[in-house]
């Protein structure tokens, strides 16, 4: 009787241990996030380690962890951190690694060549005075594909950066397999501009042509340019009919995708 009573504490401890282990496995995303924060805490030149877990299903999940690098950290050190993070991601399935440095955030992947490309783009974007901030991220796909978003100081800068990234200009060399690119000005910048490719990477050539034709002859306060749409907003007092005719002439196949209106101050 005494031996049986002594056995119960051991059984209870064993069961509790199983519950704890199962709980960790059950919330896999949270566990991965915790591992990321523990691994990178105290890393030199990293001011913040931010990780979030996604517990999608029982015993399944993923995590995304970001290293925020101290302002002014040399590019060589950021490159070093990116390579260390690449190795970590390669060894920890289900964990996405990101770095934020000098206003540009980017995702690091296990493949060394892809990571080299994204670090090179980070270097050129942070060295470009036309760029306010940017985000380079992967999109869900079977292979590595990229989404790039850039905020520029003004409309001419936005168009120039967009051209560089879609035509491999002198300032920036884009990544292989980019599915979408968006370049825009801040919400309080006038004139404003938002220009983007399609989800398939197709550039808005006709929309840009319509915008440039109108901008050359009429005061423009804002525009949104996509492969199938050119929305141009004019300053009060502009000749709406003439501007609309110009836009349609420059982009004849867009049809109803041409939208020209007057800014009403709202």
UniProtKB/TrEMBL annotation:
Superkingdom of the source species: Bacteria
Protein name, as recorded: Uncharacterized protein
Record organism: Catellatospora coxensis
């Amino acid at each position: 009787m005494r031996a049986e009573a002594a056995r119960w504490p051991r059984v209870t401890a064993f069961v509790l241990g199983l519950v704890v282990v199962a709980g960790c496995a059950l919330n896999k995303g949270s566990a991965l996030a915790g591992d990321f924060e523990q691994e990178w805490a105290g890393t030199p030149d990293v001011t913040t380690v931010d990780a979030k877990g996604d517990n999608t299903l029982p015993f399944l999940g993923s995590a995304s962890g970001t290293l925020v690098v101290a302002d002014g950290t040399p590019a060589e050190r950021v490159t070093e951190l990116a390579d260390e993070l690449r190795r970590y991601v390669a060894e920890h399935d289900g964990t996405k690694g990101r770095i934020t440095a000098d206003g540009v955030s980017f995702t690091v992947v296990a493949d060394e060549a892809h990571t080299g490309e994204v670090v090179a783009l980070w270097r050129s974007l942070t060295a470009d005075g036309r760029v306010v901030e940017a985000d380079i991220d992967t999109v869900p796909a079977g292979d590595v594909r990229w989404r790039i978003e850039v905020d520029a100081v003004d409309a001419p800068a936005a168009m120039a950066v967009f051209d560089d990234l879609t035509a491999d200009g002198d300032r920036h060399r884009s990544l292989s397999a980019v599915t979408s690119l968006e370049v825009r000005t801040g919400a309080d910048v006038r004139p404003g501009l938002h220009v983007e490719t399609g989800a398939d990477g197709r550039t808005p050539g006709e929309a840009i042509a319509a915008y440039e034709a109108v901008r050359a002859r009429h005061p423009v306060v804002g525009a949104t340019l996509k492969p199938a749409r050119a929305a141009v907003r004019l300053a009060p007092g502009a000749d709406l009919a003439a501007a609309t005719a110009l836009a349609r002439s420059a982009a004849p196949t867009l049809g109803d995708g041409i939208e020209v209106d007057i800014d009403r101050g709202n």
